[in-house]
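Retro notes (design track)

What went well: tokenization of the new backbones is finally stable.
What didn't: we kept losing track of which sequence belonged to which structure.
Fix going forward: every design gets posted as structure first, then sequence, in one message. First example under the new rule, 447 residues:
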């Protein structure tokens, strides 16, 4: 089985679920498509021109399929959800088209194809209840059988989104917002921690509105309450979450950063633009002023919190003054890191129909101005850690070079590490160098 993932975190998580599901059926992952019995392309259409990439990859795999007629070729994820009919019509050699909420049906669909009960399987309907990752149940039933899980994992706590930002495909590709029952989340985290996982990231498109919209009966708690419940699970060393919407950042959630010891002081809070006019056209439902107020309050609760954000430059109608407002915001907040992108039309979104598009060269110029300034700020922010002792969770040790992460999510490299250190262990490190994207340090002698 070969899986090619186009990426966002939700999508990577889906790929993990698919691998787990199919591993239970005896499928073994391969690093290359050649020789695989099943090739799955798990697609994402949030940022890039993913549809074109998917179609060109499918075109390239036509020869592979012709050479090996028993090969099963499938497309899953956002592009399958949105463009299922187009894939069926343009790519008849594709056997399987599976939308975002139907991946749990993959084993039975593959089995029907293998047994030649059917020659094509298509499932793109949306569910009205939470799609429980079945691997969790499988793990509970057979705790010793799965491959090692590693030391950190994502746990999905909600699906879909109700915010309808004008540029975004998610409400169309992943459906309306549905919160997962608390008991299921706690059960999955407990299972993972018992299997050796030390860090959990709670995952959803808009985690901080957890429990407030389209509730299933069992969900009667807010996100801060859920965080406290998860944090109380014995053996868990670090807790993170992503992604959050600024309008849903409550005072109670800010308090969690002061109160919950294992909640890492790192917060990804996408602002997208520093211009109220652009935010309104994006349908973001907050203002720059309210965003800044929340940043100030958050830092009052947790002064060492590292803030990350997302920025879109060149949104339709964005003027030079709007862009300068984004630069002003960057200079005021001084984000520890950011993910910045040029605006591009996504299929079936409102903004794709806006007629005042910004020229491509101008978008590139603005992106470069933004990223240069952000790089400079990253370096200054990272330099603030020099001389400090931080706890680093080990990710790998190769030839004595340790790579790990701080609670603030900074990557740290240390030379001279003990080869016996295992991923997931935490070591104290004295930071002595800073770069734009990482830190260097010395493992403290007391360890
Ligand atoms: S909050 Fe907006 S950008 Fe984020 S997933 Fe929902 S619609 Fe998309």
């Amino acid at each position: 089985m070969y899986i090619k993932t186009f990426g966002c975190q939700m999508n990577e998580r889906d790929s993990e679920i698919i691998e787990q599901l199919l591993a239970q059926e005896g499928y073994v992952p391969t690093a290359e498509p050649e020789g695989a019995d099943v090739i799955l392309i798990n697609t994402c259409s949030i940022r890039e021109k993913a549809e074109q990439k998917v179609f060109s990859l499918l075109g390239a795999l036509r020869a592979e399929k012709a050479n090996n007629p028993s090969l099963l070729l499938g497309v899953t994820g956002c592009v399958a959800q949105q463009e299922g009919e187009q894939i069926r019509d343009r790519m008849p050699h594709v056997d399987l088209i599976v939308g975002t909420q139907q991946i749990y049906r993959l084993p039975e669909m593959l089995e029907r194809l293998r047994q030649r009960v059917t020659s094509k399987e298509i499932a793109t309907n949306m569910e009205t209840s939470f799609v429980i990752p079945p691997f969790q149940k499988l793990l509970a039933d057979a705790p010793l059988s799965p491959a090692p899980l590693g030391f950190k994992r994502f746990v999905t706590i909600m699906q879909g989104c109700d915010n309808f930002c004008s540029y975004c495909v998610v409400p169309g590709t992943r459906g309306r917002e549905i919160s997962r029952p608390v008991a299921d989340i706690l059960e999955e985290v407990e299972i993972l921690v018992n299997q050796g996982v030390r860090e959990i990231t709670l995952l959803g498109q808009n985690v901080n509105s957890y429990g407030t919209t389209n509730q299933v009966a069992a969900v009667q708690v807010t996100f801060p309450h859920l965080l406290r419940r998860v944090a109380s699970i014995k053996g868990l060393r670090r807790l993170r979450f992503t992604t959050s919407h600024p309008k849903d950042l409550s005072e109670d959630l800010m308090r969690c950063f002061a109160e919950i010891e294992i909640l890492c002081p790192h917060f990804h809070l996408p602002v997208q633009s520093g211009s109220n006019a652009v935010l309104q056209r994006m349908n973001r439902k907050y203002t720059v002023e309210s965003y800044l107020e929340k940043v100030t309050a958050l830092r009052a609760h947790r002064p060492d919190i590292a803030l990350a954000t997302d920025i879109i430059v060149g949104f339709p109608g964005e003027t030079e003054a709007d862009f300068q407002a984004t630069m002003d915001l960057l200079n005021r907040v001084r984000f520890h890191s950011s993910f910045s992108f040029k605006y591009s039309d996504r299929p079936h979104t409102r903004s794709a129909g806006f007629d005042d598009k910004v020229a491509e060269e101008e978008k590139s110029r603005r992106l470069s101005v933004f990223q240069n300034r952000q790089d400079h700020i990253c370096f200054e922010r990272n330099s603030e850690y020099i001389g400090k002792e931080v706890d680093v969770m080990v990710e790998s040790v190769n030839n004595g070079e340790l790579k790990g992460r701080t609670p603030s999510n900074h990557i740290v490299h240390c030379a001279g590490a003990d080869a016996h250190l295992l991923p997931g262990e935490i070591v104290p490190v004295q930071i002595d160098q800073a770069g734009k994207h990482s830190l260097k340090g010395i493992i403290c002698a007391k360890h």
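Added context from the reviewer: The mean pLDDT is 89.
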